[in-house]
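Co-fold these.
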Amino acid sequence: MKYLKEIQSSKNALIKETKKLQQKKYRQQTKSYLLEGFHLVQEAVAANVSLKEIFINQRGLTEWSEWIEKNLTDYYLVSDEVLKTLASQPTPQGIVAIAEIIEPENEIELSGAWLLLDNVQDPGNVGTMIRTADAAGFTGVVLGQGSADLYNPKTLRSTQGSLFHLKVISEELNQFIPRLKQSGSPVFGTALDVKAKDYANIDRLENFALVMGNEGQGMTAEILAMTDQNLYIPIKGKAESLNVAIAAGIVMFQLIK
Amino acid sequence: MKYLKEIQSSKNALIKETKKLQQKKYRQQTKSYLLEGFHLVQEAVAANVSLKEIFINQRGLTEWSEWIEKNLTDYYLVSDEVLKTLASQPTPQGIVAIAEIIEPENEIELSGAWLLLDNVQDPGNVGTMIRTADAAGFTGVVLGQGSADLYNPKTLRSTQGSLFHLKVISEELNQFIPRLKQSGSPVFGTALDVKAKDYANIDRLENFALVMGNEGQGMTAEILAMTDQNLYIPIKGKAESLNVAIAAGIVMFQLIK
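Predicted complex below.
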């Protein structure tokens, strides 16, 4: 039998405290963030991510009773109003949980394929790129300075849970790239310069890094100067460019062995 | 010298009438739609799309004076409040125009590469796929039943103007596919069935069609039954699937000759 408490009002102290996690600074202070919807919560549970508090409404409880029975030991039954207060979407999907931010290990294994994001600002793009990197078999994604917050609800939703499947690290790329290069992995940038190569002419690799830049401006000059080789995707039609997440998907699936 | 009228109030009759174009049924009734921002309007002008009315605020007028002088002959100077009323985004980008919906020609040339959308519901996905099809050198995109409206502001924004670069047609796929097949183009579906082939093992083609399905459910059974060959993208990590626009990008760039 579960221990079950009820919260009807969004003025409840715990709910008010939890709602603060919609702001980045509170997420950083408390090293925790909000997960919305059963899909993300299930992925977190499957990945042994520690959930501090769990809030479920009656509909969620009914729809997911079997999974809840099997996987959760302690949660709050909350009103639809409370769930709406905690969720970023107008129709919350039955559950919101407080998850613990996992600090990356000190010694990260640098082998494998890495996706590095240089100022990718749109949460949807960042989340989708993490999902795609997972699907392509990448080892990890590094969110460089200026990139969207991993724990933004829109980023989380776009990952579809892939943040629990591979390493996702927030670190300045000018620190990470030298370590990658020292480990022997070539670092590919994406830019149109005279020495850039058609991405389709690069042999497939096991160990490498691919850097994607900002939606409008592309990669910063500082990071461009650190790459071993820049790549471009030939545009055949009249489009000026590709969406950054689409470009990342095309190159990731082409490069990885 | 330009003819220039001013509209200060969003209660102005023309503004109230124009605002109705935010709804699909009015777009269909009047065969017109709203374009937001100078990038989309410039692409429309470059493609000789007829603009019925143009609304610009003071900031837009100042920032784009040279282009306006050269390209526009008749427009309204409107208050920020008026522009906000017409735009879908909280910070409208200086201009909103009423554009005419162009009916497709009766006899469509079916050669080349075609992207067919079977119930792709998200406007951002549909717009991004049109942009990617343009960049990959596709001839056209067919929005099948259940797919997001091309003239939804979010679809338009995601196309980045590519809707003016290639053919975009709304037509039922069960009508369009037989004509494509009759013209000799193979039609590839995307699905995981026992006979599906790895997309990377298909020889590049000039004339073909690729069908992408709904974000959650994939292609409908009816359309699946009409394809010549189904393709899949091998997933190497633990992601369950790829975003549909990412999958489309990967396969389009791989298949087209």
